[in-house]
Amino acid sequence: MSAYDYDLFVIGGGSGGVRAARVAASLGKKVAIAEEYRFGGTCVIRGCVPKKLFVYASQFAEAFEDAQGYGWTVGETRFDWPKLIAAKDAEIERLEGIYQSNVNKAGAEIFADRAVLEGPHEIRLIEDGRRVTADKIIIATGGRPNRHPAMPGAEHCITSEEAFHLKELPKRIAVLGGGYIAVEFANIFHGLGVDTTLVYRGKEILQGFDDDLRHELHQAMDKKGLRVHCCDTFERVDMRGDGTLAATAKSGEVFVVDQVMLAIGRTANTENLGCEAAGVALDARGAIKVDDYSRTSAENIYAIGDVTHRVQLTPVAIHEAMCLIETIYHDRPTKPDYDTIATAVFSQPELGVVGLTECVAAERFDEIEIYRAAFRPMKNTLSGRDGRMLMKLVVDAKSRRVLGAHVLGHDAGELAQILAVTVKAGLTKDAFDATMAVHPTAAEELVTMYTPSYRVKGGERV
Ligand code: NDP
């Protein structure tokens, strides 16, 4: 008989926590999981899923325009924001129910409560008041948007969390930030007809992505009338008498809008969690420090997902959960594999990437070859839309291995998933060349770029 109430107690019912709880329970472990808000976590409740539904909603305006080039007469169209919110909420509720019932089916006990650590094996349930013990504990409490408290007027701003529940669609919005969330939401709002400005402190949006694609996306956004204002940031936001907001930028420019959205990174949810009492150390940003196996500084306590500030992506949290189960319940110490993680930014056009950018590859390899195709996809011909697709393969000249694949355009996220298999498998450019094209598709460009567009040797383009 165990000396503890549970073999495993999981704090947090997001993607990582739920996966760990479900799999551990299915192995016959006595598992409990506490979630203070709603099952599904950031991804399902206020992140990936509702965001993608918003992306779909925001694409119709262009689709209606494009349809006319294909012979359709589109009648009067009207967008109803409350209707979208209600439909989205219903879908999220459905998914939340599935998450919860999967936990139930696996046999884990659910606490709809906030859980805090009181010691290395002790957990207190706040509402319930109960104190329980567990042999092992997994912290999977995720993160939340930074709210920029140092900026005067930050309290007038929204973050992605409020964006999912706005009563009204603003007429004008300014989005601060140049990362995933800022870029995705700026495109969503623009697509829904909101006059949108994105303000970013750096030289170009989406730091860390391939420069070519960053630039091309920026231009595409500009062309649509979505203003991208770089090398600037907001210094203050004031509420005006008429309820509108005046966001004053460092440059002196004042943006008068109905909403200001902050998308400036996320913070780990570790406040008042009892980490100190349990001997769980935090890093300077307040995220939980873990070793290569997701173990915290407390021997029996582990942490996975966004709360550890490693890679803030749902599939990564799930992977960390699965590796942890291998480590602690199958006696097979397994480190999560962070090499070659494909990702997509659901901007419009979309960006899907995997592997090294040209810039990083040029630093790491003596000579690289760049295969690049920029073209107008067939879909844009009859519609008359001038949007281009950009595809780029980064290849090590010596081994011929494809180091990175980058796509900007329709369904780039879908393509990134398949490209990820090829890059992860270490396939060479010869394997791409030997692959028959699927015609007519946009993706066929990926296997028909036979000669390099240019080479980069010793950091210089040759
Ligand atoms: P990101 O880290 O992607 O971007 C944060 C942005 O805010 C950067 O442009 C950063 O600038 C800027 N910034 C940071 N601090 C300040 C400040 N004080 N003032 C002005 N600007 C600031 O974070 P997000 O919030 O966009 O997203 C969080 C994470 O969630 C992402 O990193 C990603 O892992 C995940 N995510 C993934 C999605 C997907 O897979 N499609 C979608 C949404 C989120 P700088 O570049 O100069 O540092």
From TrEMBL:
* Cofactor(s) this protein cannot do without: FAD
Cysteines paired by S-S bonds: C43-C48
Which UniProt key words apply to this protein?
Disulfide bond, FAD, Flavoprotein, NAD, NADP, Nucleotide-binding, Oxidoreductase, Redox-active center
Query: InterPro entries from the entry?
Result: FAD/NAD-bd_sf (IPR036188), FAD/NAD-binding_dom (IPR023753), FAD/NAD-linked_Rdtase_dimer_sf (IPR016156), GSHR (IPR006324), GSHR/TRXR-like (IPR046952), Pyr_nuc-diS_OxRdtase (IPR001100), Pyr_nucl-diS_OxRdtase_dimer (IPR004099), Pyr_OxRdtase_I_AS (IPR012999)
The processes (GO biological process) annotated in the record are: cell redox homeostasis; cellular response to oxidative stress; glutathione metabolic process
What the entry lists under Gene3D superfamilies is as follows:
3.30.390.30, FAD/NAD(P)-binding domain
Q: Which residues form the active site?
A: H439 (proton acceptor)
Report the EC number(s), separated by commas if there are several.
Answer: 1.8.1.7
Name the positions where NAD(+) binds. Answer: G177, G178, G179, Y180, I181, A182, V183, E184, G265
- The reply on keyword Nucleotidyltransferase is no
Q: Which Pfam families match?
A: Pyr_redox_2, Pyr_redox_dim
Binding-site list for FAD: K52, D306
Please give the catalytic activity noted in the UniProt record: 2 glutathione + NADP(+) = glutathione disulfide + NADPH + H(+)
Q: Which residues form the FAD/NAD(P)-binding domain?
A: 6-321
The UniProt entry's coiled-coil ranges are none
What note does UniProt attach to the cofactor annotation? Binds 1 FAD per subunit.
Q: Which family does it belong to?
A: Belongs to the class-I pyridine nucleotide-disulfide oxidoreductase family.
Q: How does it assemble?
A: Homodimer.
List the protein's name.
Glutathione reductase
Organism per entry: Jiella pacifica
Q: What is the lineage of its organism?
A: Bacteria, Pseudomonadati, Pseudomonadota, Alphaproteobacteria, Hyphomicrobiales
